[in-house]
């Protein structure tokens, strides 16, 4: 089998290197676990697997088989950077960047430079614009003090209640508790969109053990 390095292969390596470094640099700036080195290696590795799959699989009519394995392997790597801390989940954006960097690497390996370039530019622009969009959306959300009264014997429900509240709100503070006359009052600062206030009310009303609430 001919294993000579073609000039197009050099372009693929350089493109994958540049794409991985650009995506990895964004994560490195934010001091994430998967940064410059990790994202670059993933992009290069994905491109290499695709190049080998194309060259070795083309005679058999199955050039995309190796690329399909890349997708499965990247899912394992992406899952490794996702972790739960308190009521928040971290690492989803990094996992997404790992996934898109592998996809771009696969596209480069198959010689789809235009497609890879477009997705790279769109991804980088979106990552840069996200903080601006997030701040604009955050200004539309209201800061409320949520107060929930729960009988002491049902305090075990607080974890469930707070996890459900977390699905409707963002950036809330750590809860504070006050025990008085066998009733635990939970105080929580939440930031919520006005349209979700009704959903929050319905959620709290659906828990019969809650004696009272206000926000």
Overall body shape: elongated
Task: Give unreliable regions as ranges.
Answer: none
Amount of helix: 55-70%
What is the radius of gyration computed over CA atoms, rounded to a whole number of angstroms?
24 Å
Indicate the proportion of strand residues.
15-25%
How many distinct beta strands? Answer: 6
Number of helices: 7
Major sheet summary line = 4 strands, antiparallel
Question: What report would you give on this structure?
Answer:
- With 215 residues, the protein is α+β, with helices and mostly antiparallel strands.
- The chain has two domains: 7-137, no CATH class; 142-214, Alpha-Beta Plaits (2-Layer Sandwich).
- Helices cover 59% and strands 16% of the residues.
- Strands 4-5-3-6 form a four-stranded antiparallel β-sheet, with no helix packed on it.
- Helix 1 runs parallel beside helix 5 (113-139) and helix 2 (36-57) runs parallel beside helix 4 (92-109).
- It is elongated and about 80 Å long.
- It starts with 6 loop residues before the first helix and ends with a strand.
- The model has no long low-confidence stretch (mean pLDDT 82).
């Amino acid at each position: 089998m001919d294993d000579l390095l073609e000039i197009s292969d050099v372009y693929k390596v350089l493109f994958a290197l540049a794409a991985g470094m650009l995506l990895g640099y964004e994560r490195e700036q934010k001091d994430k676990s998967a940064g410059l080195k990790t994202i670059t290696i993933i992009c290069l590795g994905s491109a290499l697997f695709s190049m080998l799959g194309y060259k070795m699989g083309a005679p058999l009519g199955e050039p995309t088989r190796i690329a399909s394995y890349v997708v499965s392997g990247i899912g394992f790597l992406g899952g490794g950077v996702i972790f739960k801390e308190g009521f928040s989940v971290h690492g989803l954006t990094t996992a997404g960047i790992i996934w898109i960097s592998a996809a771009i690497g696969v596209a480069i390996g198959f010689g789809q430079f235009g497609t890879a370039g477009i997705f790279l530019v769109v991804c980088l622009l979106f990552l840069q614009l996200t903080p601006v969009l997030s701040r604009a959306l955050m200004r539309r959300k209201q800061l409320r003090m949520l107060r929930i009264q729960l009988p002491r014997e049902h305090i075990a429900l607080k974890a469930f209640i707070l996890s459900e509240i977390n699905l409707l709100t963002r950036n809330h503070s750590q809860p504070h508790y006050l025990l008085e006359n066998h009733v635990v009052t939970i105080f929580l600062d939440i930031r919520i969109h006005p349209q979700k206030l009704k959903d929050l009310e319905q959620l709290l009303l659906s828990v019969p053990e809650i004696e009272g609430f206000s926000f």
